[in-house]
Specification:
The chain is mostly helical and 233 residues long. 81% of the residues lie in helices and 0% in strands. The chain has one domain. It starts with a helix and ends with a helix.
Length: 233
């Protein structure tokens, strides 16, 4: 009976993720009232930018899927803090550098690489590297590097708008702090759910299948972004 219940729970979670992910493919980014606000922004707006940063991370399915993969098998809090800090360092550098430093990149390519980061981490969680290639890459370095691309992904969303230079530094720093707040909130919920699931008998039994589903989402994101790139070209 516990295995049947666990199977139903995993199936329900996967179905919910599929619905949310497919809907989010079109919704991801800054749009609607948020876009209108950014287009008309004049001067500092610390509070609203904090909110937008937090909102973007909490609704950023690509960032969250990668973070799920990162902490999936981390059982000690200090390990979680280490890897999340590396990811935060990476995406903070390129978010600030991209917007304040005027460093540009093609958003479709960047988002495709972000999709690849999801595939990479799920593949690693499935012991893919030692099983197929006979070695294990440095996970800490990979998280840092992929964090740089995730930061560029955030930057490209803001670069779509002609942001006024008046108060730009304060606004972007506020947005980045908001991203960290949203990341902390999302990770807290994810970690609580994972911690509870790890106490169930079916965790290790379904861990491989769960990461396979996460990997499939990553491939879906890669295909979606590459098709957008070639259609745009």
């Amino acid at each position: 009976m516990p295995n049947i219940n666990a199977s139903k729970a995993v199936g329900l979670a996967v179905a919910m993720l599929l619905v949310g992910f497919s809907a989010g493919l079109e919704a991801h980014g800054v749009a609607g009232k948020d876009a209108v606000f950014l287009q008309g922004l004049q001067g500092r707006a610390v509070g609203p930018l904090l909110y937008l940063g937090a909102k973007h991370m909490v609704t950023g399915y690509d960032h969250l899927l990668f973070l799920v993969g990162v902490i999936f098998f981390l059982y000690r809090l200090r390990d979680v803090l280490l890897y999340v800090s590396l990811f935060t360092l990476g995406h903070s550098l390129t978010l600030l550098g991209g917007v304040l430093g005027g460093i540009h990149a093609n958003p479709y390519i960047i988002d495709a690489i972000i999709g690849f980061s999801v595939v990479y981490k799920a593949f690693e969680n499935m012991d893919g590297f030692p099983r197929f290639f006979g070695f294990q890459p440095d996970t800490r370095l990979a998280v840092l590097i992929f964090g740089l691309f995730h930061g560029f992904g955030l930057a490209t969303k803001l670069q779509e708008f002609a942001l006024t230079p008046n108060g730009l530094a304060a606004n972007i720093v506020s947005f980045n702090v908001g991203v960290e707040i949203g990341q902390g909130l999302a990770l807290t919920g994810i970690l609580i759910a994972l911690t509870y699931w790890r106490t169930r008998r079916g965790f290790l039994h379904y861990a491989f299948a769960t990461n396979a589903v996460v990997m499939a989402f990553g491939f879906l994101l890669i295909g979606y972004q590459l098709s957008g790139y070639f259609l745009a070209v």
